[in-house]
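Problem 3 from the worked examples.
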Amino acid sequence: MNKLRNTLISKGFLAAILLVVALPAAAQNLDPSRWNDTMAGFAEQDRMHPQPEGAILLTGSSSIARWNDQAAKALAPLTVIPRGFGGSVMGDVLYHLDDVALKYKPRAILIYEGDNDTIYHVPEEKIVRQFQEIVGKVHASLPETRIYVLSVKPSIARVSVWDAAQRVSANIKSIANHDPLVHYVDVANPFLKANGKVMTDIFVEDNLHLNDMGNLIWGAAIRAALMPIEIRYE
């Protein structure tokens, strides 16, 4: 029994070491130019299928990217342009804002970031500052465009950084509270059980990305936030 316990402890310790080593390495590899090919791919899609001006632009990390082909149906009859790119962080949206959002001249931009940022240990104040810079650039280029910013969603895989994610969300919510063109969308509470723990049946095997049920909850929360305002502009 002691031998088995020691083996399990050793394996757990090794896994923890590998996690600590891997995360800073990932964080150091956040050069936004790594998405240049993705942006070129979006541009090619636009050449083949031109997008309308005045739509709702959806961008952000994998929770948006994996929803790209479901968003139009989930948010109908709203006109949406899905431009999520999985694995991205807030700084990537900031760097590629012209190509991924502003060039479409959308009436609204919806952003989901902070999930990867927190697991990569990007400083919380940096994430929030980058969001502020995004808001400033949107206001300067498209002064009537509304911005919808989603809270960081909870997940089983990233419970270790949930406190940091909640602080980031709270700071971003504060920005929205002081800007009439910025709307905060809570996609965290819809995924929590009554005891405050994250639901366990809403993820695929990685315990991070949403399954069909999770996507239905996700879509319902986003739809509820967008519809009262955006349906007026269809």
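Problem 4, a separate protein:
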Amino acid sequence: MLSNDSSLQSLTYGPTDGTADWCLVALHGWGANAADLVGLAPYLEIANFSMVFPDAPWPHPQAPGGRMWYSFPNNYDFRQPYDFADQADLQTSREQLKIWLCNLPKTTKIPLERTILAGFSQGGAMALDVGSQLPLAGQVILSGYLHSEAQTPVNPRPVMMVHGTFDPVVPIAKAHQAKTALTALGQPVTWQELAMGHEIPPQAMGLIAGFCEDLRQAGENTLAQPLG
């Protein structure tokens, strides 16, 4: 299903009979789009989850049909120190994504407290940035990094980071820096380092599914506890 809400288009996958009581939102990377990620959804095999995949606001300058959350400087290779925070395209994406996520429960009927925000590469950076401002159940950062200073999240939530030892695009040192920054803010991080490059292999899919199922089960157990 294709939707256009708060200026971001998105694709959805999952139960349409109202049985989904949790939501997974996944943000694509630079030059990809929602269709790239939605193709992975059947392999997650997570029950009772609605999955939503938004397109970034900006067209990619080189990849036909590709989108981006913000541009990179010419010849940028992630090893150069650079602060993206002042870029107008990032500021626009940040605002639009936050509004879109805040409005998402109106469509899914699932609160943000039962929503997990995931992102790959540049999408992972967006998930770290905007995710901290929302009362999410958890975050999954795949081959990601911090594009600006880490912020204390508005509510405690676990974060799983998955990164390739041989990532030729986003050096694993960037992920280590993000993990250190999140830990310093008191955010619990589960670190998963895989012998891979810049990709989402079946092993990573299994880790994502396990993380989502564990959070859902923990949430159900909390709700089942008697009051008083």
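Solution to problem 4. The mean pLDDT is 91. The first helix runs from residue 34 to 38.
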